[in-house]
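Shipment paperwork, digital attachment
Item: protein structure file
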Amino acid sequence: MIIPENVRIALSLLEKAGFEAFLVGGCVRDSLMGRQPYDYDMTTPSTPDETKAVFDGFSVFLQGEKHGTVGVIINGEKLEITTHRCDGEYLDHRRLETVTFSRRLADDLSRRDFTVNAMAYSEKTGLVDLFGGKEDIENGVIRCVGDPDRRFDEDALRILRALRFSSKLGFVIEENTKKSIFKNAHLLKTVSAERIRDEMEKLVCGKNADGVAREYREILELLFGEVDTELFSSSVNRLEEPCDRLALFFCATDGNGISRLKFSNELSSFYKKTRRLFFEKRPETKYELKKAVSDNGESAVISALRLRGDTDTLSLLEKMLEDGECMHRRDMKINGSDLASIGFEQGTLMGQVLDTLFELVLRDELENDRGKLLEYAVKLRETH
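Attachment content:
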């Protein structure tokens, strides 16, 4: 396993202080699969106070100290080191109320969600795999550690995590784990919208998202109402952008999930506009295409065209954007200040004239040229 230098320094300092130190979880799983890990979680028997003492002289962050996690900055990189622990009681099937620190790695691994995430590694000890995670990776299986009913009762989000890993890794979910998912699916009602949103953003991006949507349609419908899995599955694999994949999922539902998942105002607006455009009539003229961009923004129009697979219209729009064609009021070569400079007063008339000029430019009936726009504005004033 290739260990980055800053991570190696942290592990070495812990070991020199007399504590075992292991990489754990996703980085071990990804390394066994030949993937580059995106982060490296470390676990150790040292308590948070002992860990802080090991890294005396380094900048440390203690936001996760209650649950045993100490953050340390090494050469500008923030790393997290967590004490071996046994989980206490979970509240509302999602919130861990208490933890008990442990000196045993086995205790820490036994509380984890799936076998593929319950492995540890150190250069001194090698791979520690108490629950058959390596074999499950080789066989392409997602399996709960221990009793799946207990794992999902502790944290109901693990149900969506199982689907997400199946989607991302292309693994099948082991039969007992699968049965427990359907048995306990109602517990997802207790999970916050933000946590569901984060999992769905990852789930739809997996290489097996179409298969998961079909096989676990009932689970998704518990959260989002009826899901048209045929619509989703028919197009998701040709879409590369994460936002396009999630937009397609919302097109396969009634769209109410957009509001329920508490996106930022900007993202919520994007998904709602993209979904509406997806079902609207295809723009058949340059004017209709420019009008769609003016009303909805280019990102939503582009996404809707990608979802439809309308490559011809998308190519036309990209060429229009490249040529700098006017598609927004802000792109016009005049504004209210220009009209004021030739005697227009602020008010209804100025707004009406700007609207008319913009409409003529969109229709290619008037050139987007300052002089010509001002000349036409004078004519419009004379007719009012």
